[in-house]
Write a structure and sequence with these properties.
Layout (H helix, E strand, L loop, with lengths): L1 H22 L15 H4 L9 E3 L6 E7 L9 E8 L5 E5 L2 E2 L18 H13 L1 E2 L6 H9 L3 E3 L5 E6 L4 E3 L2 E3 L2 E4 L5 E2 L5 H29 L11 H36 L5 H13 L1 H7 L5 H14 L10 H13 L1 H9 L8 H8 L10 H11 L10 E10 L5 E3 L4 E3 L6 H13 L13 E9 L5 E9 L4 H18 L2 E7 L3 H8 L10 E3 L8 E6 L1 H13 L9 E4 L2 E2 L2 H11 L17 H4 L9 H7 L2 H10 L5 H16 L7 H4 L26 H4 E2 L4
Parallel strand pairs: 13-18, 18-20
Antiparallel strand pairs: 1-2, 2-3, 3-4, 4-5, 6-12, 7-8, 8-11, 9-10, 13-16, 14-15, 16-17, 19-20, 21-22, 21-23
Helix pairs in contact: 7-9, 10-11, 10-12, 15-16, 17-20, 21-22
Length: about 700
């Protein structure tokens, strides 16, 4: 029994060794008996080229070439390697990238499996003799790649090319530490560059030219803002802007000609000529479908009126017999005011029949436009507001006025035979100005003054959507006492027409503040006065436009230790400095910022920080600077020097929100309670409690010493 047990045990050991030996062998069939070759035996006795070493193990055969990039570089790098796997398949790595055998033309003749030592030796020597593809090491291409963060993407967001800095490459007897390599690069070539990288050079040249044009355009826009007034530019800056505008005009003309040729070709190839028979067919189709239109839309709807009008126009032989419906005229006027060129193109297409621009001009000039008050404008305003049939609460209006810059020039009116362009600020003010000029001793007569601004008054409904430009006065410089007669003249005429003027709104100009102070009684702040033209005991409120106020506050803050340095805002011994905001921006959004991903200042940009003559007039920039986001960013920094600046931002963010309540849902969506509608008594409204009053002397110092 013991002998049988030993025989069975030895037989099992022999079978186990036989199975292990089968796993490490391969059978090659070529029409003759196969010969077994082991993976361990394949790596022995191979003659390797210089700088190559054998790093094989029990599972695979691995040969690698170790090189130094330069004489100063002490660290060795594996530049090429050949690996024979356990199944005798081979793989090659070049400069840290795996070579795809099917895409490398130099190795396309090598079999999928290495079965002999001779084949392995030929493969190693062939790889050693091949050059590494130099890619595109040109400096201007690498500069473009750095601007794209080292990667080029296709329109489908796939990587096309990248910067390869694994090991220096040789190109035209010069060593380059970096190169721009295609994602489909062959890596090993017989010459300097593979076909894929050669073909991609054309794309790189086009991308580089486009990038240079964008850089030049950005540099021109960065040097001189296109919104800066021409009069404020120096002579070189004017010449530069003129050259840029000329280039833009030339490019636009080329684009227009290109589009015209494209439209002409498309019209010739795919256009359809509308003949008289086709026009009759269109008229017949419209007549057949008229019953369906009348059933679908009401008789007084715009769709039904437009359909009937077009059908009637198709039946007319003489187009001069057209009588347009008032609703069609109103619709065409709205189209023309939006875009005159689009209206002209739509009318010229003959798809629909529309009134001519001359007809629309007659309707727009139905009321003669002139400066000063007019009974025709009063009648048009009453008709627009439907003053006789609206309830009393819809008669409350607000009078808004502001100055608009106009071109200083004279125009001859052929209807009234007068020169238009002189200053006309009302009969009373004009007579007073003439009296003052005549009473002053002067050797030469005073010439009439040309208008540089237009003082415009607009009537805005409080409970309705009424927006009506009421009266305009050409002026140059206006004073508070001259405004007095104009404003109260507007209020008197509006109250006579049946409106109830509840407030007057304007910006914070010095003449407007002087006008409000003329109604001051005592030392109290003037925010309302008695309306002598009202039928009931109703006051008239003075409101400064919140948009202008928020810009004024931002500009004062910007000049506090910044920009012009004309202010030094302080409270409780701490500065309210613009430099605090600049430091905050540089820490979280500046070029040296190391923060990636989300930012605590998502809307803040450099145009919020570095203000110019144009950005100072933008309300959105001022509102985004004086916002809760900026205040929370100061709180996140938790610096003891910016506490009062943070409180300053929160106060004016609250003020702007309180003056911008528009609906009942906005405060929920924006999560800002100050935007909630006013439903409580003002005396019990917690939002209107501001705490102790801060005097101007406590708030800021207007010195620059």
């Amino acid at each position: 029994m013991a002998r049988k047990f030993r025989l069975g045990r030895s037989r099992k050991n022999a079978e186990r060794k036989s199975q292990q030996h089968k796993k490490s062998t391969c059978f090659v069939k070529k029409g003759r008996p196969t010969k077994k070759i082991g993976i361990q035996q394949l790596s022995t006795g191979i003659y390797l080229p210089p700088l190559w070493s054998n790093q094989s193990s029990m599972q695979f055969v691995h040969f690698c070439k170790i090189e130094h990039g330069s004489s100063n570089q002490t660290a060795a790098t594996v530049t090429k390697s050949v690996t024979i796997n356990e199944d005798l398949s081979w793989s090659v790595n070049v400069h840290g990238h795996k070579l795809i055998a099917g895409k490398c033309n130099a190795l396309c003749c090598v079999k999928d499996k290495i079965t002999t030592k001779a084949a392995l030796s030929r493969l190693v020597h062939q790889i050693d003799s091949l050059s590494v593809c130099s890619g595109n090491p040109d400096s201007h291409f690498l500069e473009l790649a750095d601007a794209r963060k080292g990667i080029f993407h296709s329109p489908s967001k796939n990587m096309v090319a990248f910067i390869d800095s694994f090991f220096p490459v040789m190109f035209e007897d010069e060593m380059y530490s970096r190169t721009l390599r295609c994602n489909e690069c062959e890596l090993l070539v017989t010459n300097n560059r593979c076909d894929t990288c050669k073909q991609y050079r054309c794309t790189l040249r086009a991308l580089h030219s486009q990038w240079l044009r964008q850089q030049k355009k950005t540099a021109n826009h960065a040097s001189i803002s296109s919104h800066t007034n021409f009069r404020y530019l120096k002579t070189p800056e004017r010449q530069q802007r003129i050259r840029r505008l000329r280039n833009e005009i030339v490019n636009k003309r080329k684009e227009v000609e290109r589009l015209k040729s494209y439209v002409n070709v498309a019209t010739e190839q795919h256009g359809i000529y509308i003949e008289e028979a086709l026009e009759k067919d269109i008229k017949q189709i419209m007549e057949e479908k008229s019953n369906e239109i009348r059933k679908t839309y009401q008789a007084d709807s715009f769709q039904c009126i437009f359909w009937n009008q077009q059908l009637e126009l198709l039946k007319l032989k003489d187009k001069r017999q057209i009588r347009w419906h008032p609703m069609i005229i109103r619709w065409c006027l709205s189209l023309k005011l939006l875009s005159s060129a689009s209206y002209h193109a739509l009318r010229s297409s003959n798809l629909v029949i529309l009134p001519s621009e001359r007809t629309l001009r007659d309707y727009t000039n139905i009321v003669k436009a002139k400066t000063g008050f007019s009974t025709g404008i009063d009648a048009q305003l009453c008709h627009e507001a439907n003053i006789d049939s609206i309830p009393d609460h819809e008669k409350y209006v607000c009078l808004v006025f502001d100055e608009v810059k106009i071109k200083e020039d004279l125009v001859f009116d052929k209807h009234s035979l007068e020169l238009v362009g002189f200053v006309q600020i009302g009969d009373i003010n004009t007579h007073l100005s003439k009296f003052e000029s005549c009473s002053m001793p002067q050797k030469t007569p005073v010439a009439p003054q040309l208008a540089t601004h237009m003082l415009s008054f607009m009537v805005s409904g409080i409970m309705t959507d009424l927006q009506f430009p009421y009266v305009s006065f050409p002026c140059s410089t206006i004073s508070g006492d001259q405004l007095y007669s104009m404003v109260w003249g507007c209020i008197r005429r509006l109250e006579t027409c049946g409106f109830k003027v509840l407030a007057v709104t304007c910006d914070g100009a010095s003449s407007n503040r002087t006008f409000m102070k003329l109604h001051q009684s005592g030392d109290n702040l003037t925010y309302k006065t008695i309306n002598p033209y009202a039928n009931e005991d109703r006051p008239l409120f003075f409101i400064s436009d919140p948009s202008h106020l928020i810009k004024t506050v931002r500009n004062c803050w910007a000049n506090s230790y910044g920009h012009s340095y004309t202010r030094k805002l302080k409270i409780n011994g701490q500065d309210i400095s613009w430099q605090h905001l600049v430091d905050l921006y540089k820490a979280h959004r500046g070029p040296d910022c190391a923060t990636l991903g989300l930012s605590i200042l998502p809307k803040l940009k450099w145009e919020h920080i570095e203000l110019n003559s144009y950005s100072k007039m933008r309300v959105d920039l001022a509102a985004q600077v004086l916002s809760t986001t900026v205040a929370e960013a100061f709180a996140y920094e938790n610096s003891p020097h910016t506490k009062e600046t943070e409180r300053f931002v929160r106060i004016f963010d609250k003020f702007f929100d309180l003056m911008n309540t528009r609906n009942t849902k906005e405060f929920v969506l924006k999560r800002k309670p100050n935007l909630a509608p006013y439903i409580n008594n003002p005396e019990t409204e917690e939002r209107l409690k501001w705490g102790p009053v801060i005097t101007c002397s406590e708030f800021y110092s207007n010195t620059t010493t």
